Amino acid sequence: xxxxxxxxxxxxxxxxxxxxxxxxxxxxxxxxxxxxxxxxxxxxxxxxxxxxxxxxxxxxxxxxxxxxxxxxxxxxxxxxxxxxxxxxxxxxxxxxxxxxxxxxxxxxxxxxxxxxxxxxxxxxxxxxxxxxxxxxxxxxxxxxxxxxxxxxxxxxxxxxxxxxxxxxxxxxxxxxxxxxxxxxxxxxxxxxxxxxxxxxxxxxxxxxxxxxxxxxxxxxxxxxxxxxxxxxxxxxxxxxxxxxxxxxxxxxxxxxxxxxxxxxxx
Length: 266
Hints:
The chain is of the alpha/beta class. The protein has two domains: 5-142, Hexapeptide repeat proteins (UDP N-Acetylglucosamine Acyltransferase, domain 1, 3 Solenoid), CATH 2.160.10; 201-253, Up-down Bundle (Udp N-acetylglucosamine O-acyltransferase, Domain 2). It is built from four helices and 28 strands. The chain has helices at 197-202, 207-221, 227-237, 242-253, and strands spanning 5-6, 11-12, 17-18, 23-24, 29-30, 35-36, 41-42, 47-48, 51-54, 59-60, 65-66, 81-84, 89-90, 95-96, 106-109, 114-115, 120-121, 126-127, 132-133, 138-139, 144-145, 150-151, 156-157, 162-163, 168-169, 174-175, 183-186, 191-195. Helix 2 (207-221) runs antiparallel to helix 3 (227-237). The chain is elongated, with a radius of gyration of 20 Å.
């Protein structure tokens, strides 16, 4: 525990593993099965429990509850895990739960994620890299969230939902279906409201890539025929376009799962 800074009021249970240059502030508690990577910082009044592994340089702010038993009435005490990657920021009042035997026994968070105040990650969720949860976001159990997703303040995602990479969920939206990669969902009982163009531009996608994606989107969601027919047509026409192919594969992998689609005109 070289060069670690442990406040006198902190409780570090026997059996926990701390890397180097770890800071544990006032009134924090680190459980016996917790592993904190190099440079992890617990600001104050934060609790990390369970079989939880925190990646290097992640910061955890006051009153966060990380790794406590799942909020699942079917949970019977089975040993499950929580893994959080490097360089994450976990702000005040955030709750992140480990997995259950009904979902693989693991909740996994990628690198460079930001969880703003009072956001929640339910049991058995898989969250990618560079994801942003704004204040009060609620992610139910068994969800999958791809890389570079942003969820606006107060958004709620139903259990088992999939949110594709680079997607955006607007503030106060309730997402009840799978959201395609690069898609944007808005509204109370959210509907597909277009593509996350601003996000694509910020992340360096070319004008031609965005133009092709716009056209593929119109063909999938605004043309005639069934959704399956439109998807098959787009898969053929855009077979050499990787980001369009990513959307097609996401939809097909969902099988019979309900898909977030545009709102029907009145």
